[in-house]
UniProtKB/TrEMBL annotation:
Cofactor section: [8Fe-7S] cluster
Domain Nitrogenase/oxidoreductase component: 49-447
Name this polypeptide is given: nitrogenase
Gene3D superfamilies: Nitrogenase molybdenum iron protein domain
NCBIfam families the record matches: alt_nitrog_alph, ANFD, N2-ase-Ialpha
GO molecular function: ATP binding; iron-sulfur cluster binding; metal ion binding; nitrogenase activity
EC number, UniProt record: 1.18.6.1
Family of the protein in this entry: Belongs to the NifD/NifK/NifE/NifN family.
Pfam families (UniProt xref): Oxidored_nitro
UniProt keyword annotations, A-Z: ATP-binding, Iron, Iron-sulfur, Metal-binding, Nitrogen fixation, Nucleotide-binding, Oxidoreductase
Record keyword Iron-sulfur present: yes
Catalytic activity: N2 + 8 reduced [2Fe-2S]-[ferredoxin] + 16 ATP + 16 H2O = H2 + 8 oxidized [2Fe-2S]-[ferredoxin] + 2 NH4(+) + 16 ADP + 16 phosphate + 6 H(+)
Length: 526
């Protein structure tokens, strides 16, 4: 097993099994790091928790819902406005966040009363919103607050509202992926089948695992519309609460992000007999293959081919322009979950980039397995890296670009590696034919940005030395005061700061007369 030992993690021996170097002619059992396990104490993981996976990833994209967290204020604050889940409801779901704001007294006496009052206050504040999801955070789960009972009381008192309860406290699993699982199953168990939809087409689908990041869903919706397909519900980007209660009437579940939403597809297939079809909206060839699969299922292949021909003709010349300038550039593909394997092969095949590393923070073994199988030999595969390992990997691999989330992306910029936001995008959407050209454009802009090039200019050795900071003379002793004044003069000889130091010293520190050494320095400066 070609395990990769990080120097910074030698003191944590367990981390050895969470990173491997992919060697030529290796089968996946020899190149697969351990994954989806509890975080090793001391590694300072940057993972999200199960609550984050339920609320932030799956729940929040629903557009006509009050998303209420029952716990301390920090939980909803940390999962608020960090992804661009846009909607046609004036982006209500990302403009506002709601919480009971539990404090120490609620841990002792309980917070059910606080929860009920917050629910009513929220509905009063937004009378046009009649749907709510309550997310149980760690604090309320630990003390056993019964959120279902409170929700039932409210719905009895206010018959026009409907509330969904999600029991996914942060400790419910090793990472945010556990939260994906919980909310998937609870939605089917408690809400699906309660609404009968209006069917307007012979071809009806649920679009699952799509979160409308910067308009991804709108791109795909356009393709479906041109094929004559009705999208009954989208789970959950720009999705309507009541539409998602009618998922049982679809003829086909089309699944995009398998890591976050395969669970609901599998349950819907088991309970309602709705088949599941996995697709891939990133890249020209994967997008074309996906449209052909959907067309074949419904017997409308000609409509799919017409879209593929039209879109390819329109966007291929622009993509070719970027590919000519990106070919051979090295990329670390560190996006998180399923984008790892959605992108691993296509960024190489269609953009000409060399994938030198792949990683996942919350993905399962299957995600890493598919990602490693699709990237080049020599790539470094890492499960749940911490910040120090991230820096060490970048320093060693020297990539031209990193595709990752905002937190590791900001770290990358500090060591002069450009990044594009793989989670919330820089200038999306990235799906579909036009979206893939946008993706290529963002990569090109990141690598060739003149601002980025300036980061390599070292100004520390300029003729005029840089400011070394302010010296607080009150903290100086008799012995080193003169030396400090001289240094101040050297630092600021072109700004006149030396004279001000002298005047200040004469007024505030008369007990320290100017010495011959200082006077001599003054003469040298002129």
């Amino acid at each position: 097993m070609p395990y990769h030992q990080f120097d910074c993690s030698k003191c944590i021996s367990e981390r050895l099994h969470h990173a491997v170097d992919k060697e030529p002619n290796e089968n996946l059992t020899d190149a697969l790091p351990l994954g989806y396990l509890k975080t090793i104490p001391g590694t300072l993981s940057e993972r999200g928790c199960a609550y984050c996976g339920a609320k932030h990833v799956i729940g929040t994209p629903m557009k006509d819902v009050i998303h209420l967290s029952h716990g301390p204020i920090g939980c909803p604050y940390d999962t608020w406005q960090t992804k661009r889940y846009i909607s046609d409801n004036d982006d209500f779901q990302i403009k506002y966040t709601f919480a009971t704001g539990m404090k120490e007294k609620h841990i002792i006496f309980g917070a059910k009363k606080e929860l009920k009052e917050t629910i009513k206050e929220s509905f009063r504040a937004f009378p046009n919103i009649k749907r709510m999801t309550i997310y149980q955070a760690c604090a309320s789960a630990l003390i056993g607050d019964d959120i279902d009972a409170v929700a039932k009381e409210i719905m009895n008192e206010m018959p026009d509202v409907d509330i969904f309860c999600c029991h996914s406290p942060g400790f419910a699993g090793p990472s945010q992926s556990a939260g994906h699982h919980v909310i998937n199953i609870e939605w089917v168990d408690t809400k699906v089948g309660q609404v009968e939809p209006e069917i307007t087409s012979d071809y009806v689908i649920n679009y699952i695992g799509e979160y409308n990041i910067q308009g991804d869903q709108e791109v795909m919706q356009d393709y479906f519309k041109r094929m004559g397909i009705q999208v009954l519900s989208t789970f959950t980007g720009n999705g309507s609460y009541d539409d998602l209660r009618a998922m049982h009437r679809a003829q086909l579940n089309i699944l995009e992000c398998a890591r976050s939403a395969e669970y609901i597809c599998n349950v819907l297939r088991k309970r309602y007999g709705i088949p599941r079809m996995d697709i891939d909206g990133f890249g020209f060839k994967p997008m074309a293959t996906s449209l052909r699969k959907i067309g074949l299922f419904f017997g409308i292949e000609d409509r799919a081919e017409a879209i593929i021909e039209e879109e390819t003709k329109r966007w291929q010349p622009e993509l070719d322009w970027y590919v000519a300038r990106l070919k051979g550039k090295k990329i670390c593909l560190w996006p998180g979950g399923s984008k790892l394997w959605h992108w691993a092969h296509v960024v190489h095949d269609e953009l000409g980039l060399e994938v030198v590393s792949v990683y996942t923070k919350f993905g399962h073994q299957g995600d890493m397995e598919k990602g490693i199988s699709r990237c080049e030999a020599g790539a470094l595969a890492i499960d749940d890296p911490n910040e120090l390992e991230t820096i060490e990997a970048m320093t060693k691999l020297k990539p031209d670009l990193i595709a990752t989330g905002k937190r590791p992306g900001e770290v990358a910029k500090k060591i002069r590696v450009p990044y594009i936001n793989a989670h919330a995008y820089h200038n999306g959407p990235y799906k579909g034919f036009e979206g893939w050209v946008r993706f290529a454009r963002d990569i090109y802009n990141a690598i060739y940005s003149p601002i980025h090039q300036l980061s390599f200019v070292d100004i520390s050795k300029d003729e005029i030395s840089q400011d070394k900071g302010f010296v607080t003379r009150q903290m100086l002793s008799d012995k080193n005061l003169d030396e400090a004044v001289i240094k101040s003069g050297e630092m600021h000889e072109y700004t006149g700061e030396y004279d001000s130091v002298k005047k200040l010293r004469g007024k505030k520190y008369p007990q320290y007369p100017m010495t011959k050494k200082v006077n001599k320095k003054k003469e040298e400066i002129g």
